[in-house]
């Protein structure tokens, strides 16, 4: 009798929307879900810092090919900015580098500072970030004592709202709700708000509430997923996140072989292509008068 371990049936391809716990890295979540889902083909869209909680979109099997496109969608956050202290990481995990009493900063000044950081802005990422500088992650250089200079980048903060202001001694805690483009650092918004007000600032709490169409009501904790691994099928995931295009059987055969279709003016981003039976065939984008395949999921 063979003692070889029976080969485990791979899980269906799709997305798992996780409510990431505090203290876990995004890689920790991926490692845990590899065991829960029973496959090595697991990845995540858009890193969350260990301090942060909330929505982390994880792809399983073929859905890992969606992640790079999902990572570019708009994101939503709830956070708390502490005015009166700066840190070397721009969040509560770093060391305090400067303390300036913030008690004299008015609510109106805070709201004006927030308004100035709303819209399309140029943002310098935190020194402790995953951005590569000369082939090495910025956080590795910063943690070795090197002064890292990162270039400002354009980002879009479509909404930046103050939801509460709490005062205690020389410190002011500002609760905020933010909607922003991919690549926006809420830590940097905290730093820049404090700098503009002349008292310094850093992020003390962050919860991601949304990645594109995937929000907290759809998310499951690690404990819940250990009991039941809920995987959103790829067809549903793509239909929720991108414009949909339904094609004929003949067009489906063209798409399955990576061929092009006439453009329909559905936009410059990814488009989900579905066959006559409703099955997901591919992600494409329109280039001029035709489409170009981004990922083909059949064949």
Note down, in words, how this protein is organized.
- It is a single chain.
- The longest helix has 12 residues, at 26-37.
- The model is unreliable at 1-5 (pLDDT under 50).
- The protein starts with 13 loop residues before the first strand and ends with a strand.
- The strands form four sheets. Strands 1, 2, 3, 4, 7, 10, 11, 12, 13 and 14 form a ten-stranded mixed beta sheet that branches. A four-stranded mixed beta sheet has the order 15-16-17-18. It has a two-stranded antiparallel ribbon with strand order 5-6.
- With 299 residues, the chain is of the alpha+beta class.
- It has helices at 26-37, 67-70, 107-116, 138-143, 186-197, 222-227, 234-241, 249-256; strands at residues 14-20, 42-45, 53-60, 75-83, 85-87, 96-99, 119-123, 132-133, 136-137, 153-168, 171-180, 201-211, 214-215, 232-233, 244-246, 271-274, 280-287, 290-296.
- The protein contains eight helices and 18 strands.
Explain briefly what this protein structure is:
This protein has 8 helices and 18 strands.
Which key terms come to mind for this protein?
299 residues, alpha+beta, 10-stranded mixed beta sheet, 4-stranded mixed beta sheet, 18 strands, elongated, disordered N terminus, tRNA pseudouridine(55) synthase activity, tRNA pseudouridine synthase B, TruB_C, tRNA_psdUridine_synth_TruB, isomerase
**Major sheet attributes:** 10 strands, mixed
* Radius of gyration over C-alpha positions, nearest whole angstrom: 22 Å
Can you give the mean pLDDT?
91
Distance between the termini: 36 Å
Unreliable stretches, pLDDT < 50, 5 or more residues?
1-5
**Helical amount among residues, as a percent range?**
10-25%
GO molecular function: tRNA pseudouridine(55) synthase activity
EC number: 5.4.99.25
Protein name: tRNA pseudouridine synthase B
Family: Belongs to the pseudouridine synthase TruB family. Type 1 subfamily.
């Amino acid at each position: 009798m063979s003692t070889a371990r029976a080969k485990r049936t791979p899980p269906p391809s799709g997305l798992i929307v996780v409510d990431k716990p505090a203290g876990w890295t995004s890689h920790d979540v991926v490692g845990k879900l590899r065991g829960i889902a029973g496959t090595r083909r697991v990845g995540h869209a858009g890193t969350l810092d260990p301090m942060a909680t909330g929505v982390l979109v994880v792809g399983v099997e073929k859905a890992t090919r969606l992640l790079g496109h999902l990572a570019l969608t708009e994101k939503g956050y709830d956070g708390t900015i502490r005015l009166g202290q700066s840190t070397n990481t721009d969040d509560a995990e770093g060391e305090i580098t400067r303390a300036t009493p913030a008690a004299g900063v008015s609510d109106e000044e805070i709201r004006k500072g927030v308004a100035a950081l709303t819209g399309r802005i140029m943002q310098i990422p935190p020194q402790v970030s995953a951005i590569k500088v000369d082939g090495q992650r910025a956080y590795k250089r910063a943690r070795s004592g090197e002064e890292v200079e990162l270039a400002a980048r354009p980002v879009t903060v479509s909404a930046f709202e103050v939801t509460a202001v709490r005062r205690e001694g020389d410190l002011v805690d500002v609760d905020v709700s933010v909607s922003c483009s991919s690549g926006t650092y809420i830590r940097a918004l905290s730093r820049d708000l404090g700098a503009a007000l002349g008292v310094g600032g850093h992020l003390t709490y962050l919860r991601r509430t949304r990645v594109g169409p995937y929000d907290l009501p759809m998310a499951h904790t690690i404990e819940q997923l250990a009991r039941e691994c809920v995987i959103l099928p790829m067809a549903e995931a793509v239909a929720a996140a991108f414009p949909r295009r339904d094609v004929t059987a003949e067009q489906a055969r063209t798409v399955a072989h990576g061929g092009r279709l006439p453009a329909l003016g559905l936009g410059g981003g990814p488009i989900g292509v579905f066959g006559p039976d409703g099955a997901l065939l591919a992600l494409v984008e329109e280039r001029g008068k035709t489409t170009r395949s981004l990922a083909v999921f059949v064949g």
